[in-house]
Amino acid sequence: MNNGFCKDLNIRNMSEKELELRLNEIISGIKKPDFNSAKEMQERLDGKIKPTRSLGVLEDIAVQLAGIQRTAYPEIKGKAVLLMAGDHGVVKEGVSAAPQEITAQLFNSYLSGGGGINVLTNHAGADLVCTDLGISRPISPPELMANRIKNGTDNIAEGPAMTREEALRSLLTGAMVASNAIESGKNILATGEVGIGNTTPSAALITVFTGCSVEEATGSGTGLKNDALKHKHEVIKKAIKINNPNPDDPIDVLSKIGGLEIAAMAGAILEAAKQKVPTILDGIISSAAALVAAKLNPFSIEYMISSHSSEEKGELIALKHIGIEPRLFLNMRLGEGTGAALMFPMVEAALKIADEMATFETSGVSTGDF
Ligand SMILES: O=C(O)c1ccc[n+]([C@@H]2O[C@H](COP(=O)([O-])O)[C@@H](O)[C@H]2O)c1
Ligand SMILES: Cc1cc2nc[nH]c2cc1C
């Protein structure tokens, strides 16, 4: 375990204009993956003793990694889940089955190693980096709050979640966390989060960015039922109506109806893509962040690897809109990055196939029309 307070890139002291410029540098630094390396990887895989494309998604992942790392011989050197935490003013409206104080309590549990995400990152041999972007109450020691932008978002049913400047600061803080992880040797990242209420802004973002209905994007989160779920729909509709975000300006949408931890995950995805590092997505909140990243630069999509299909149905709509499919069907809806962590071994397996499986040429197995 690790925590996300890290090398200060002076994000705190930057003006809105400087933040916007810095974000634009990241966005414009994202290049398309290398087609030739991807093609060469597919040729390597086609030489293995198997019917063509019979390893399905494993082949897709190996090919994707080759394009991203710009070599037909990609390697995984270090893995980390970047867990971003933030609270949500909209919980006042009764949109979550859980009370707000749980966010801080869960964050402490991850720091002491007891969360589901601790178990699954340990299982995968990955690091966990926890960053407080906006928990609503103090956490200890105080250094852990060094990256906090504010004590939770404002209530989106009454006005914007945050200012544009706060959204930019959150995005760049996420980018900084990703950059530090990469500098410390990680070359595959995953997004994770905690934040009571965060399925509400996620559903709002998915509604606005994809054009689906609020009902389609919204699920029961931590466990809302019947009338409470209908009330959540009404709150999200109200939030979209009163904030009237401009879908052509992703930062406007993010700042008005998003979340601090959602912004940080989007920033991490973009920075990783700029540095030619893939990011594994988790559930609905990660997918909402991925939509923000995709709207800011569609090339970033090629650096995203999906993991599980969350029980929170808006995730599928977000992923479909981006053009990627979930790979694991486990009926999960915990968040934290737990589904993403389970994808690390799959990615490693894909590269092992490329490196260790015998070829028709060397094994004595005859080739044929298969
Ligand atoms: O990842 C998911 O798809 C997911 C689905 C439902 C709930 N969650 C987690 O539950 C919290 C949000 O649920 P809620 O009902 O408070 O909006 C937050 O801490 C998420 O990590 C996560
Ligand atoms: C309520 C609750 C919400 C969560 N979100 C992520 N992990 C969680 C664990 C609990 C217990």
From TrEMBL:
It catalyses: 5,6-dimethylbenzimidazole + nicotinate beta-D-ribonucleotide = alpha-ribazole 5'-phosphate + nicotinate + H(+). GO terms for biological process: cobalamin biosynthetic process. One of its GO terms (molecular function) is nicotinate-nucleotide-dimethylbenzimidazole phosphoribosyltransferase activity. Gene3D superfamilies: 1.10.1610.10, 3.40.50.10210. It comes from the Bacteria. SUPFAM superfamilies: Nicotinate mononucleotide:5,6-dimethylbenzimidazole phosphoribosyltransferase (CobT). It is an enzyme of class 2 (transferase). The active site is at 336 (proton acceptor). Pathway: Nucleoside biosynthesis; alpha-ribazole biosynthesis; alpha-ribazole from 5,6-dimethylbenzimidazole: step 1/2. Keywords: Cobalamin biosynthesis, Glycosyltransferase, Transferase. InterPro entries: Nict_dMeBzImd_PRibTrfase (IPR003200), Nict_dMeBzImd_PRibTrfase_bact (IPR017846), Nict_dMeBzImd_PRibTrfase_N (IPR023195), Nict_dMeBzImd_PRibTrfase_sf (IPR036087). Its EC number is 2.4.2.21. PANTHER family: NICOTINATE-NUCLEOTIDE--DIMETHYLBENZIMIDAZOLE PHOSPHORIBOSYLTRANSFERASE. This is Nicotinate-nucleotide--dimethylbenzimidazole phosphoribosyltransferase. It comes from Sedimentibacter saalensis. The lineage of its organism: Bacteria, Bacillati, Bacillota, Tissierellia, Sedimentibacter.
